[in-house]
């Protein structure tokens, strides 16, 4: 542990009541309540509370490249915002690309190769596939260029850092919510479950966590409906499930699923019958919770994950101490606590548009 990344005392942990520090200005987003995983990169590693402190400034204008799956929803727009703002704060260059969706693995591989060919000092990867990038990551790392795994997760052990949360925990949080509301012995409820694009590491992790959490409860989960996180794709999946199961009690899944489901549920007059849950937070889900259309969603603070990834990259390049595997502390946003939370600490500004370059 470094001198700037200290363990939380029990008193501090209780004081923050499980919530991240809030209300910081853009220039001082840290210290931030986080969790370090040890051993680093272990899927079953132990998570320990820490307070994350970022560098004040980079020693030089490093050239950092970030490759993202897409910018089709507000979640990845939030990641872009975090990357861009942290690059500006630290004083480094940044180039951001997006592959176009979770079916575009070959495109993302090419983009990573282009980053290296373009002279990138470090590469930040929001992976389309948990295993599919391992070969190119190995090649890049073999050239002495650090690769940071942000948000989605990869199985490669050749990465230099991970800035992400456990999507197993994210899925589990929503599963626990349902299991506690509908315990074994109570009336059975059915849930349409939409975990996201098949094969993505974060999707499989969320599915595993969700299914484990509802096991033994009165929650009956319909066959998972996998699909791309574009709104049209998720809307069609939701409509298909409602057509086949008109009495479904809950729609649960990705944030895009929850956003898309709101209109369908309202138009079919099912507001009092069918609840909506997401296993991560976006601006649309935040607004849905505020308005009472969506019940709850755990916040993984994608903006902070992105900031951490840039900070990790610079620390590694400058041979500074670094927490290799870290993510913001997860907390659940619901109708009871949303009024007390600072939206700017976990989501991008409402007027933010994609930025692809920081010079």
Description:
- The protein has ten helices and 16 strands.
- Residues 1-26 have low confidence and may be disordered.
- The radius of gyration is 20 Å and the shape is globular.
- The chain has a ten-stranded mixed beta sheet with strand order 1-3-2-14-8-7-6-4-5-16, sandwiched between helices. A four-stranded parallel beta sheet has the order 10-9-11-12, sandwiched between helices.
- The longest helix is centred in the N-terminal third of the chain and has 17 residues, at 74-90.
- Helix content is 35%, strand content 19%.
- The protein is α/β, with parallel strands linked by helices.
- The protein starts with 5 loop residues before the first strand and ends with a strand.
- It has helices at 10-16, 74-90, 105-117, 134-142, 167-181, 201-214, 231-244, 255-267, 283-290, 302-317; strands spanning 6-7, 32-38, 46-52, 63-68, 93-98, 122-125, 147-150, 161-163, 189-194, 219-221, 250-253, 275-278, 296-299, 325-328, 331-334, 357-358.
* Largest sheet data: 10 strands, mixed
- What does the overall shape look like? globular
* DSSP strand tally: 16
**Class of secondary structure makeup:** alpha/beta
Give the DSSP E fraction (strand runs of 2 or more residues): 15-25%
Poorly predicted parts: 1-26
What is the secondary structure topology, with strand pairs?
Elements: E1 6-7, H1 10-16, E2 32-38, E3 46-52, E4 63-68, H2 74-90, E5 93-98, H3 105-117, E6 122-125, H4 134-142, E7 147-150, E8 161-163, H5 167-181, E9 189-194, H6 201-214, E10 219-221, H7 231-244, E11 250-253, H8 255-267, E12 275-278, H9 283-290, E13 296-299, H10 302-317, E14 325-328, E15 331-334, E16 357-358
Parallel strand pairs: 4-5, 4-6, 6-7, 7-8, 8-14, 9-10, 9-11, 11-12
Antiparallel strand pairs: 1-3, 2-3, 2-14, 5-16, 13-15
Helix pairs in contact: 2-10, 5-6, 7-8
């Amino acid at each position: 542990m470094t001198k700037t990344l200290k363990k939380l005392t029990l008193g501090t942990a209780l004081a923050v009541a499980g919530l991240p520090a809030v209300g910081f200005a853009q220039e001082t987003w840290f210290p931030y309540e986080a969790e370090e995983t040890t051993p680093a990169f272990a899927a079953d590693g132990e998570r320990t509370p820490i307070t994350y402190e970022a560098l004040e400034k980079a020693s030089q204008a490093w050239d950092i490249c970030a490759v993202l799956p897409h910018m089709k929803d507000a979640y990845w727009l939030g990641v872009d915002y975090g990357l861009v703002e942290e690059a500006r704060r630290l004083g480094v260059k940044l180039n951001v690309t997006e592959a176009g969706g979770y079916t575009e693995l070959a495109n993302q591989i090419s983009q990573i190769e282009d980053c290296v060919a373009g002279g990138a000092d470090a590469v930040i990867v929001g992976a389309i596939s948990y295993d599919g990038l391992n070969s190119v990551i190995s090649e890049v790392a073999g050239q002495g260029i650090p690769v940071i795994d942000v948000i989605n997760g990869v199985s490669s052990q050749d990465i230099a850092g991970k800035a992400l949360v456990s999507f197993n925990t994210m899925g589990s949080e929503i599963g626990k919510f349902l299991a506690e509301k509908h315990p074994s012995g109570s009336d059975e409820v059915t849930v349409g479950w939409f975990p996201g694009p098949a094969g993505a590491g974060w999707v499989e992790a969320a599915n595993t966590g969700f299914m484990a959490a509802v096991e033994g409860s009165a929650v009956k989960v319909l066959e998972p409906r996998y699909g791309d996180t574009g709104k049209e794709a998720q809307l069609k999946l939701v409509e298909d499930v409602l057509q086949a199961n008109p009495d479904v009690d809950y729609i649960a899944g990705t944030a895009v699923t929850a956003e898309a489901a709101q209109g369908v549920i309202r138009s079919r007059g099912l507001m009092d019958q069918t609840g909506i849950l997401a296993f991560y937070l976006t601006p649309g889900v935040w607004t849905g919770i505020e308005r009472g259309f969506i019940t709850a969603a755990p916040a993984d603070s994608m903006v902070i994950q992105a900031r951490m990834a840039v900070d990790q990259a610079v620390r590694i390049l400058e041979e500074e101490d670094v927490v290799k595997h870290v993510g913001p502390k997860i907390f659940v946003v619901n109708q009871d606590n949303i009024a007390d939370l600072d939206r700017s600490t976990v989501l991008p500004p409402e007027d933010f548009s994609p930025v692809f370059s920081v010079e």
